[in-house]
Amino acid sequence: MKKIKETKVINLTEFSYTEQVNEELMYQTFLNYKINGGDLDNLIYFNPNDNLLNLKEFCEKRGLENGVLKKLLKTGAMNSFCDFIYDEQSGQIFESKKFGITWMRDNWEKPEYQDTIKQAMDNLIEKLPNDYNKINGFNTYTQYDNKFSEHKHHLLFIFEIFSSEYLLLNLLEKKPEYKNYFNKKINFHYKGNKETEGISVVERILENRNNYYKRSNLAAIFYEKGIGHEYFHAPENIKELQDLIGSAVANNNLSCMDIIVKNVNLLELQKSNTAHDLYLSKAKTKEMAELLIKNGSPDITYVKYNNNEMYQQCAILGEYQQNFEPFKVVIDKYPEKYKEIFENNLHSVLSLSNTLSTKYAIDKFNLDISKEDVLFWADSKFSREEDEKIYQYIKERGANFDYCNKFIEKVVTNRDAGLKKLRRLNKEKIIDSKSPAIIHEVLKNKPTKTFLSYYEKLTEDDLNKEDSLKRIAWWGCQTDNDFSFVKFRAKKLQMENSEGKTFIHYLLENQLKTINYSKMSDKKIIENLAIHYTKGEDFKKIDWSYEDKNGNNLLHLIFTNKQYHKEEIGNDFLKSLLYKNLISKEEINELLDKKNKDNIKPIALLESAFENKALSIKAERGLEDFYRLMGNELNLMIEIKEGLTLGEFIFEKVQDDTMKKELHMNLLSQMLPNKESVKKKNKL
Questions:
Q1: What are phi and psi of 141, to 5 degrees?
Q2: Residues in CB range of 342: below 8 A, 6 or more apart
Q3: Can you say how many angstroms the Cα of residue 56 is from the centroid of all Cα atoms in its chain?
Q4: Helix, strand or coil for residue 265?
Q5: Which of 97, 298, 355, 580 is the residue whose CA sits 20 to 30 A from 492?
C-alpha cells in the first residue's frame, strides 16, 4: 500500500483518481497516516491543478463523506470538524470557525453529517465541568470580521439557535446538576437596554418561536425531568401546556404522559379544540390511546362555524388518525357510538390513511359499501402485490362496481398504464370492463384512441345496456368524437332508460351539475342529435312531457344551461322543431312553465315572436339574443313599443356598430318588404 510521506501537507498526488475515490483504500491510507503520527488537520495536495483542501473538503469533492469521513470520525482517528472548544481557564465555549452551531442546525437532517454533529455534542458534554457555574459564555465566530462574539447566557444561546433533543437528553443524563441551570431565574437585555424581570432559562427557550416542533419536543423532555413545571401550569401558559402534551403523545412519550395526567384535566383542556388538535388524533400506539382514554381525553369535539351551528368532529376519522392500534382501541371502547358515526360517515371511513382501520371498521360494523367508489379506495391504498386481495375483499363485502367514477377517471387519465390496469382487473375477473357502468365512465372521461381501440368490438347490445344507476352505457360520451364512435354502434339514439329519460335530457341534466366547464359536453352532440331526430318519423316518439325530479323538461335544460346558451346550442335544434313542424308553438308554451320563461331571455323573446306581440327591448343585448337564436331565417315583423319596427330598430343600431353591420343589413333585407327603403335609410 502506498504511504503518505510525513510533511506539513498530505500529498496524494501519487494516487490516481480511481484510487482517490476508492473508499476503503482512502480510509486505510488516512488511518495509517494518523497511526504513524500524521496530523489529519493538515491540508491535502491531491491534484496539481487544484487548490489545497482540508480532509472534509477533499472527501466531499471525491464523494467520500460516508465511506471515509464518517468512519474516521466514528473511530476517533480525527476530530470532528465541527467540534466545540472549551477553555477551562476562561470558562468560555467556542464554536468551530467554519462549522458552528448555525451550520449544525442547518445540516442536522442530512445523514452524512448527523453522526458528526452528534459526536461534536458528545465531545462538548465530556469537556464541560460538572458545575455549570464555571461556564462563563458561548462564543460564535463571524467570518467577515474574523472574530468571536461572546454570549453571556451560554447554553441558552445554543438551544435558542439549535433546539437539539439529542444534546439536551445527553446533557441532563451526564450532567444532572445542569437541571438547576434550566430552572435558574435570569434577566435578559433587549433593545433600548430594557431589562426583563427574571424568568427561567427553560421559559426563554420555549418562548422562542423558532423551530416550533423541536421546541415542543424539548418541552416534553424538560417536564419529564422535573424542569419548568411552574411555568407550564401557569394559567397564562395554557398554549405551551397543550403543545407539551401534543408533543409527548406524538412521540409516544409514555413516561412523560404518566406525569402529566396526574397534574392536568385532559377533558377540560381540550373543550375548544378541533378534531386534529385532540390528543387521541396524535396517538401512535395502543398504550398511549388507552392512557389517554383512561384519563378522560375526548375522542369527539364540537366546533362552531360561522353560522353558529355546532358540528361534531371525530379525532379518529379522516386524515387525523393514521395508526391502526389507537383507532381500534377507541371504537372497541365505544362500539355503539361509532357504529352510528361510521354508518353516517362512510366516506370518512374510506378516507382513513390506514387501510387496516378501514377494513376493521367495515367488518366490525358490517358497513354497507355498495354505494361508494371502493374501487378507487382499493386502488389508492394497496400496492401491486396486494391488489388481488383487496379487490377480492371489497367484492366479497358487497361492493357495487357501478360506482366507479373516480376510479375510471384515474384509469383514463393514466392512459396506457391505466388501460393496462383495466385489462388486468378484467382478466382476473375482478371487474367486467364491458359493463355498462365502466363503458359509461370511460366515455365520460374523454378517452384516448388507445381506449377506443380497446372498445372497438363493442356490440349494439353492449352499448344499449343500462346499469344500476339508470345510465345507458353509451350515454357517457362527452365529446362529438366519442359520440361519433358510438352512434353507429348503438343505433337506438332515441331510446329511453327505464325512467323514460332520453339521452339529450340526461346529457343536459348532468351538465347543469357540472362546475368545471372544461368537462362540458361538446355542443355538437346536441346539434348532431337534432339533425338525426329530424330524419323520418322517429323523432315524434320522444316523450316531451318527461320531467326530472326538479321539474325540468328537455327545453328547460336547453335554455337554463348558460354554457349552451352562450354557444347557441338551441339554435339548430329549435329551428328543426319549429320549421319542420315537429313541435308546435302551443306545445312549447305548454312545456315552458312560468318558473323558466320569466328567467330566460331567449324564451321570452321566442314567445313574443310566436304570438306576434309587441316586443319591449330595453337594451341591444336583448335584441342580439333574439336574432342570434333565430338566425337568418327570421322573417317576422315585430313592432317595438317605442313605435319602431324591429328592422328600423336594427338600422339605428348599425350606425354605431360597424363590426356587425353586414349581419344587421342581411337581417334588414329579409325583414323589410321594400329593399329600396333599406338602401334609402342606409344613405341617410
A1: -100, 135
A2: 349, 361, 365, 367
A3: 41
A4: coil
A5: 580
More confident site: 405 or 571? 405
Is residue 509 situated within a structural domain?
no
Domain end (from 137, 162, 183): 183
Q: What is the pTM of this model?
A: 0.63
Domain boundary among 166, 183, 200: 183
Say what angle helices 165-174 and 154-161 make with each other, to 10 degrees.
150
Identify whether 481 is part of a domain.
no
Q: Is residue 328 situated within a structural domain?
A: no
All residues at 6 or more sequence positions from 473 whose CB lies less than 8 Å from its CB, including other chains: 436, 437, 439, 440, 443, 462, 463, 464, 465, 466, 467
Note whether residue 299 is domain-resident. Answer: no
pLDDT digits (tens, 9 = 90+) for 45-104: 998 888 899 888 899 899 998 788 878 877 767 777 788 999 999 999 999 988 899 999
* Contact predicate 655/682, CB 8 Å: no
Q: Please indicate, yes or no, whether residues 102 and 42 belong to a single structural domain of this protein.
A: no
88 lies in the same domain as 174: yes
Q: Helix 620-630 to helix 646-654 angle, to the nearest 10 degrees?
A: 110
Report d(CA 56, CA 98) in Å as an integer. 11
- HSE of 21 in the Cβ direction (CA atoms, 13 Å)? 5
C-alpha cell at 389: 386481495
* Residue 678 near residue 665 (C-beta atoms within 8 A): yes
Q: Are residues 21 and 61 in the same domain?
A: yes
> Does 68 lie in the same domain as 120?
no
Residue type, position 488, single letter: F
Same domain? 87 vs 175: yes
pLDDT tens per residue, range 297-353 = 988 887 766 666 677 788 888 666 678 999 999 999 999 999 999 998 888 888 887
Query: What is the mean pLDDT of the segment spanning 227-235?
Result: 89
CA 392 – CA 625 distance, rounded (Å): 56
Three-state DSSP string of 31-71: HHHHHCCCCCCCEEECCCCCCCECHHHHHHHCCCHHHHHHH
Task: Give the count of domains, the chain.
Answer: 3
Within 10 angstroms of residue 267's Cβ, the number of other Cβ atoms is: 11
> Structural domain of residue 166, as residue ranges?
79-183
SS (H, E, C) 87-124: ECCCCEEECCCCCCHHHHHHHCCCHHHHHHHHHHHHHH
Q: What is the 3-state secondary structure (H, E, C) of 459-481?
A: CHHHHHCECCCCCEHHHHCCCHH
